[in-house]
Structures are given as C-alpha cells and as structure tokens.
Amino acid sequence: MRYTAIIIQPDHYNVWYRKTLEKNLKRYLDLIDFACTSAGTTTAKSKSSAYAPVKLVSFPEFFLQGFTTVADIDKYKKDILITIPGEETERLGEKAKKYGIYICGAALETLEAFEGAILNCAFIIGPDGRVVHKYHKFTPAIQWELSTSPHDIFDDYIKHFGRGKSLLQTFFPVTETEIGNLGTLICMDGHFPEISRSLALNGAEILIRPTAFPEPITYEPRNWWEIENRARALENVAYVVAPNTGYLRSGVDGEEHVQTFPRAFLPGDSMIVDFEGQIIGRTQYPGETLCIGVIDLEGLRERRCESARNFLTLLRTEPFAEAYKDPIYPANLFSKLKWADYTALSQRSPEALGLITKFFEKGIYKKPKSQRDDD
C-alpha cells in the first residue's frame, strides 16, 4: 500500500476563552477540506485510481487550545480542557468519514478518573469518525507545561488503563489499522529513545509525533528537531510523521492576553521521515501550510525482512536491563505533592527532587569546579 500523509501546520490562537477554541477548530475543518481536495492529492474515496490517496492527516500538539502556563485548574476545566472523545473529536470525525481518512492530533483533556490532573492526549480518529487510539504524553516539559504524566499517577493509571495489559501496552499503545500499525508520542517524548523504541517493540510502523517544538532548538545551530526525528525513524526502521506549529498567536484581538509569546516561537519545520531516516516531506519555514509525503507501507515491511541493520532484531537486552533496574525519576508524584506544589514547575525539576545530587553521589555526573568543596 502507498498512501499520502498530510501534516497541517497551523497558525493558531492560544485559548483563554472557550470561543477561541471554536475559532481554531473551524479553521482546521476548512483546512482538512483543502488538504483532501485542493492540494494536488486525491482521497481514499476518490473515484480515480490515485497513485497515493490521502489516508492520514496530522495536526501538532496544542493545536486546539494553544499553550499557557498561567491558568489554574479551574480555568483549565472551564475554558481549555476537552474530553476525548467529545464534541471536538466528533466534528473532526465528520471530516474523517467524509474523506475516508485517519486524523491525528494532540490536545489537553480531563478524565473523571483522575480529578485535578491535566492529561496531554494524542488521539487518532478513524474513517468511521470514531476515536480509535489514545496516548498520554509520558514526559511533559516540566519547565513549561502543567500537564500530568501517566508516570505521575502510575499506580492509578495502571488500574484504569492496564487491565490485562503489559506495562508497555498500557503506557505506549499501538493501534492496528489498514494504513499500518500506528503509534504516537508527543513533543518532549522524542528526546527519549526509549519511548519510540517501546512503541516499535509493540509493533508500531508509523510513529506520529504531534509537537510544539520551540526555538532555539528547532533550527540551526542546535536543530534537535531534525536530529531526533531522523534518529527515531532510522533506529526503529519506522516512518516518523512530525507536525509542528507554524505560528502561535497570544489571543484573539480585543480579548485579554494573559501570556505573550513571539509568533514564531513555534516555528514550523514540520516533516515526514522514512524508515531509512530520509526526510521525504518538509516545510522548513514557519506559518500556516501543508507538509506532504508518501508512505510506502509495503516497502517498510519488505525492509524489515532484511537482516542488515535490522536494529530491532539486533537488540542485546540483558545489560540494558541492569542499567534501568533502579528507578530514577519518582513515580506517583502527583499523589505525593499537593496540587499547588505540583503545578509549581520548579518543584518537579530534577534539581528540586534531588536527582542531580544523586547523580553526583553515584559518580554518573561529575561536579563542575563551581560546585566542588575542595577548591
């Protein structure tokens, strides 16, 4: 099977009032129409014998709600958080049914089972209009965002989502579809090869990474964005579909702006990377646009039959198990800290939790001269 994947790289508003979320959503519904009918592509429901019909449309992280670090939990619940599935995914689902496509995005949701927690959820809607996949961001950017990792509610998360499943299946789900086995990771998760590797070992063929990736790490000279996307694809012999935001607006004109960001703080460069680590689609600039690439699913599966550099089958796991036998970042942190302390970003940092000191004590890190007592 060959099909076209389209990233919609948006120019969206930060949401402080619920009506702004609606403004973002309406724009996306129009852009889906354009992507599936006017972008030099044909959809799965087209009557023509298309070379590679559109089967997958992806949006970045925070595409519905934008990004803020100053709202309290009551404000989030009232105006920002959604439920998945819910009204927003139902309306996106109408477009999925109309064009016979899968739609992926990431949004902040609330769940009754975890009162007070904000979960950053990557979701996929199938051609029948229903949500077929959900994944919760495992490693939030604690220097910026208030969302809760499943690891912060580890025991309760397993009780709720892990019945009859392994830990890998519980925290890193993969969904089998006609367009391949789909796995998702979100933004900061891409810094950790263990997450994409866990998805690949669960069978993922297409890794979708909805992201709000900022400067100065998107472009040269750092360019962590390209480095990570290409490495995650190559090491897992998998496609990586990586949407990023093109512009971030502080708010609708005339409304209260509670937090201001440069519009190109999230500067685009959405990309699609193939299983050899080659970029096959890219929008190397900010702004609202599309990024398009062709997924060769059979080509991927043929490549995974080869012995040379078949990295997943060459894993020698025994020494790695010892490297990870002792916990590092503490689990169940949400239940250990009061909400006010948990939402203080600094209280969740490795420094505040004493983790950097432990690395010095174990000899993993060496102290710089500025922190040594022997000078």
Name the overall outline. globular
Output the CATH class name. Answer: Alpha Beta
The residue fraction in helices comes out at: 25-40%
Number of DSSP-assigned strands: 14
Number of domains: 1
CATH architecture label name: 4-Layer Sandwich
The protein's oligomeric status is single chain
Helix-strand sequence = EEHEHHEEEHHEEHEHEEEEEHHHHH
Major sheet attributes: 6 strands, mixed
Question: Uncertain segments of ≥5 residues (pLDDT<50)?
Answer: none
Rg, Å, rounded: 21 Å
The percent range for strand residues is 15-25%
Q: Return the average pLDDT rounded to an integer.
A: 91
Instruction: Please identify which CATH superfamily we are dealing with.
Output: Carbon-nitrogen hydrolase
Detail the topology: elements first, then pairings:
Layout: E1 2-9, E2 11-13, H1 18-37, E3 54-61, H2 73-80, H3 87-99, E4 102-109, E5 119-125, E6 131-136, H4 154-161, H5 167-171, E7 174-177, E8 180-184, H6 193-201, E9 206-208, H7 224-236, E10 239-242, E11 247-249, E12 270-273, E13 279-283, E14 289-296, H8 297-303, H9 318-323, H10 333-336, H11 339-343, H12 355-361
Parallel strand pairs: 1-3, 2-11, 3-4, 8-9, 9-10
Antiparallel strand pairs: 1-14, 4-5, 5-6, 7-8, 10-12, 12-13
